[in-house]
Amino acid sequence: MAVRVQQEDFDVGVESRTLQGPAVGAIALFVGTVRSLRGDDSITAMTLEHYPGMTETEISRIEDEARSRWPLLEVRVVHRVGRLLAGEQIVMVAVSSAHRQAAFDAAQYIMDFLKTDAPFWKAEERGDQVDWVEARQSDSDAHAKWQLK
Amino acid sequence: MSGAMINVLYFAWMREHTGTASEQITLPDGAKTVGDLLPLLMSQSAGHALALKNMAAVRVAVNRNYGDLKTVVAAGDEIAFFPPVTGG
User: Fold this and answer.
1) Hey, what CATH class is A3-148 in?
2) Do B13 and A132 touch (CB under 8 A)?
3) Does some domain include residue B30?
4) Which range marks the domain in which residue B19 is found?
5) Which CATH number fits the domain that encloses residue B67?
6) What is the ipTM score, two decimals?
């Protein structure tokens, strides 16, 4: 299983090289980071929690579904938990395939389903205030569009 | 007769409202589904009642798989309640 949930940061270069192989012609790699700008607000940090056990199960299920749609070689998902400062890396989804279209599409698919199905929750810090982030309709829409394809 | 136990988990703001991340409860007599557990869970505290008041805003997992209020529960199950997810 190529899913890791961890507090520590990850190195995109190192992760990318682990996806290399003789049949690989394309690696698509997405990194999500802690955005500090939220409209007029400034986010200083966020804390992520998750459901150990279920998280890995859900992401593996999403990976299996992606593999049933595209001819993928390697898939890596790394998701951080704990307190992360603005600008830090949160998540990486990396996919290798023989050709670019499968790698691009599968990376997006995995990310879209991770957003709506993987049991993580974010609490944002604005000064002294800490608020749980609400789920976004745009994420549900991104998920739903794959049902049509 | 010794009661059949289940383990109930809460995450994010539901954990804060209930004041607990997990609790062991005795499966109520006649309870067959997640929905059947709600009256007992909501009676645990005012915070539980608040957390579980609007189940449209809550997701359910049974043994680490997504379910809903109709999902069947049995002794030894792990039932989790949490808000819509916000990872990534």
Assistant:
1) alpha beta
2) yes
3) yes
4) 5-82
5) 3.10.20.30
6) 0.93
Concatenating the DSSP letter of every residue in B18-52 gives HT-SEEEEEPPTT--BHHHHHHHHHTS-HHHHHHT
Residue contact B64–A54, C-beta within 8 A = yes
Residue (of A94, A98, A86, A148) closest to A122 by Cα position: A86
pLDDT in tens, A104-118: 999 999 999 999 999
pLDDT at site B1: 46
Interhelix angle A100-117/A137-144, nearest 10 degrees = 130
Question: Mind listing the pLDDT tens digit for each residue in A29-83?
Answer: 999 999 988 777 889 999 999 999 999 999 999 999 999 999 999 999 999 999 9
Asked if B57 has any chain A CB less than 8 Å from its own CB, the reply is no
Q: Does B84 touch chain A (CB under 8 A)?
A: yes
In a domain, B71, yes or no: yes
> Does A117 sit within 8 Å of B66, measured CB to CB?
yes
Size of interface A-B (CB pairs under 8 A): 68
In a domain, B15, yes or no: yes
pLDDT at residue number A139? 87
Q: How many domains does chain B have?
A: 1
| Chain B residues with CB-CB distance to A54 below 8 A | 61, 64-65, 80
Asked if A86 contacts A36 with a C-beta cutoff of 8 angstroms, the reply is yes
